[in-house]
Amino acid sequence: MGDLPGYKGRALRFLQAAKASIGDMLEVRTKWGVVTGTLVPRYLYGDGDHVVLKLKSGYNVGLGLDGLDGAAVKAKGEKPSFSPPPPPKSPERLPRVALLGTGGTIASRIDYRTGAVKPAMSESELHSLVPELSGAAKVEAEVMFDILSENVAPRHWGKMAKRVVRAVDEGVDGVVITHGTDTLGYTAAALSFALAGVPVPVVLVGAQRSPDRPSSDAPLNLVAAVSVAGTAKFSGVYVAMHLGESDDKIAFHRGTRVRKNHTSRRDAFVSVGVPLAAVWGRGGLEYVSEGLPPRGGSFSPRPAFAPGAALLKFYPSMPPGAVRSARRLGARIIVVEGTGLGHVSGDVAKELGLFVKSGGVACMTSQCIGGRVDLNVYETGRDLLQAGVVPLDDMLAETALAKAMWVLGTGAKGDRAREMMVHDVAGETTARTFPG
Amino acid sequence: MAEELLVGLEIHQQLAIPTKLFCACPPVKSEEFPGKFERRLRPAQSETGHLDPAALFEYSKGKSDLYLWNPESSCLVEADEEPPHPLSAEGLEAALLVAATLKSNCIDEVHVMRKIVIDGSNTGGFQRTAVVGLGGSFDADGERVGVQSITLEEDAARNLGEDGGSRRFALDRLGVALVEIALEPVRGDSAHVGAVALQLGRVLRSTGKAARGLGTIRQDMNVSLGGGRVVEVKGVQKLNLIPKVVEYERRRQSMLRAVAAKLRAKGVRKVACRSMDVTATMARTASPVIKGLVAQGGAVRCISARGLAGLLGWEPEPGVRLGKELAEVARAGSLGGVIHSDEFEKQGVTGPEADALRNAMGCSVEDGLVLVAGRPDSVERVIPVLVSRLEAATEGVPEETRAPTDAGETRYMRPRPGSQRMYPETDIPDIPVPGPLRARVAKAVPEDWESTVRTLESRYSLSSDMALKVYDSDLAAEFVRACGKLRLEPSFVASTLVDLPARLTREGVPEAWCSLPALMAALEAVDGGKAAKEAVPEILRSAGEMGVSVGELLASTGREVLDEAHVAAVVEAVVSRESALIAERGDAAFSPLMGEVMKELRGKADGSLVARMLHQKVSEAAKNAGRSG
Ligand SMILES: [Zn+2]
Question: What interface predicted TM-score (ipTM) does this complex get?
Answer without folding.
Answer: 0.92
